[in-house]
Design goal:
284 residues, alpha/beta, Cytidine Deaminase, domain 2, 8 helices, flat
Length: 284
């Protein structure tokens, strides 16, 4: 299987595209070239059978496929992946298909009946979603992990400074993994915030690093339910975002003991769940 690169993120070859635009500024219009974040479909096949299609930014596709299978509960270990490869198109110009060979894939038969289309919304809600998570048997993340508030507020700037594609296009979500000292372990970008998280978790799965019980994940978008779900599958104890979480995300985080942080901007953040991991003394 393809090894994933963690620490420093190089811009994948197809992650940005150039286009001609007209810019208007202070009454003057002129033509210039601008960068766009690339968006293309990725088909994930189980064996020879198409399983799901997700719109993504090309790059780290094997991680995305592995992470998707893991966070959706379709595989329970790295060892279940017998093969993982990108398939080139008939013209050989692009690869928008990843083929996964799964050991003893008979248990996937029922899941093959449903066709995922991963978009900006997850299409799940309410009590049924919480019950589905409970049925999957997710465990509360490590209660012993701690991260200092003074470390947390520094993370957004460290994330932004490492966002190779965002810096050129301004149009991507990011997910980053930090240790308790604020050191960056891995960062991935994608047009879809769910995909960025799946790429990080897929990288950790393929590298044999799961569970990520001693790390903080920071996401550039909001902390929605679907992101909480994915983070919990990886054993991550702290999820921070620069925006707001949803009500269902807060309910799930509180139920399973995840530390959930929102509005992490400047020297301010809001803790919605699990504040014991952030503060050494009692909150006034």
């Amino acid at each position: 299987m393809e090894a994933a690169e963690g620490m420093r993120v190089r811009t994948p070859a197809r992650s940005v595209e150039l286009t001609q635009v007209i810019e208007w500024q202070e009454g003057v219009a002129h033509s210039l070239q601008d960068y766009l974040a690339a968006e293309e479909p990725l088909e994930i096949r189980i064996g020879g059978t198409p399983f799901t299609v997700t719109m993504r930014t090309p790059g780290h596709d094997l991680e995305l496929a592995a992470g998707f299978l893991w966070t959706e509960g379709l595989i329970q270990s790295r060892e279940q992946i017998a093969g993982l490869r990108a398939i080139a198109s008939e013209t050989g110009s692009k690869s928008n298909v990843v083929k996964v060979e799964v050991k003893d894939g008979s248990h996937l038969a029922s899941d093959m009946q449903r066709r995922f289309f991963a978009a900006s919304g997850c299409g799940i809600c309410g009590k049924a979603s919480i019950n589905a998570i409970r049925v999957r048997g997710l465990q509360p993340p490590d209660p012993a992990f701690r991260v200092d508030a003074e470390i947390l507020y520094q993370l957004p700037e460290r994330l932004r400074s490492e966002q190779a594609v965002f810096g050129r296009t301004g149009g991507l979500h990011a997910a980053a993994l930090f240790d308790a000292n604020g050191e960056l372990l891995a960062l991935r970008e994608d047009i879809g915030r769910h995909n960025a998280v799946d790429k990080i978790i897929g990288w950790a799965l393929l590298e044999g690093r799961l569970p990520l019980s001693r790390y903080v994940m920071l996401v550039s978008g909001r902390g929605g339910f679907e992101i909480i779900q994915k983070v919990l599958t990886a054993g991550i104890p702290v999820l921070a975002s620069v925006s707001a979480p949803s009500s269902l995300a807060v309910k799930l985080a509180r139920e399973l003991g995840l530390t959930l942080i929102g509005f992490l901007r400047g020297r301010r953040f809001v803790v919605y769940s699990g504040d014991f991991r952030c503060f050494s003394s009692a909150v006034k």
